[in-house]
Amino acid sequence: MNTLGIIPNLGAPELLILGIILLLLFGRRLPEVGKSLGQGIVQFKKGLRDIEADVDDAVARPEAARFESAKTPTDASGQDVRVSQTDAVETARPEGGQAPTGQ
Predict the structure, then answer these.
(1) Would you give per-residue pLDDT tens digits along the chain (103 residues)?
(2) Does residue 22 fall inside a structural domain?
C-alpha cells in the first residue's frame, strides 16, 4: 500500500468526510481560507522564481563583473584613494584656532 508521508492514500469516502469536517469548522469562511491558501501558494512560487532568477544571473555573469563592487576605489587618474591607517588626518579647528575641550 502506497502512502503519502504518514497519511494513507485517501479515497472518495475519506475525502467526503474531510470535506464535511472542513465545512463544519470553517463554514462561511471556507472561501476566504481557500483564497488565502491560494495567495500563499502564489507568493511561494513567486519567491522560488525570484531565487531561480538570482541563481541564473549569478551563473550567467562573468567572474569579473560579479566582483565589480569589490574593486579598489580610484580617482580619475587611476590612483588609489583609500585612506591608510598611517596617513595624517587633518581635523577642522573651531574659530579661534583652539582645539575643542572635553566637557
Answers:
(1) 555 566 677 788 888 998 888 888 888 887 888 899 999 999 999 999 999 988 888 777 766 555 666 777 788 887 777 766 666 666 666 666 565 565 5
(2) no
Cβ of 26: how many Cβ atoms within 10 Å? 13
Cβ proximity of 33 and 26 under 8 Å: yes
- What does 74-90 look like in DSSP terms, one character per residue? B-TTS-B-PPPTTS---
Asked if residue 55 is part of any domain, the answer here is: yes
Which residues span the domain enclosing 37?
29-69
Tell me if 80 sits within 8 A of 74, measured CB to CB.
yes
Cα 24 to Cα 20: distance, rounded to the nearest angstrom:
6
Using DSSP's 3-state secondary structure scheme, residue 95 falls into coil
In a domain, 99, yes or no: no
Cβ contacts of residue 30 below 8 Å, gap of 6+?
22, 23
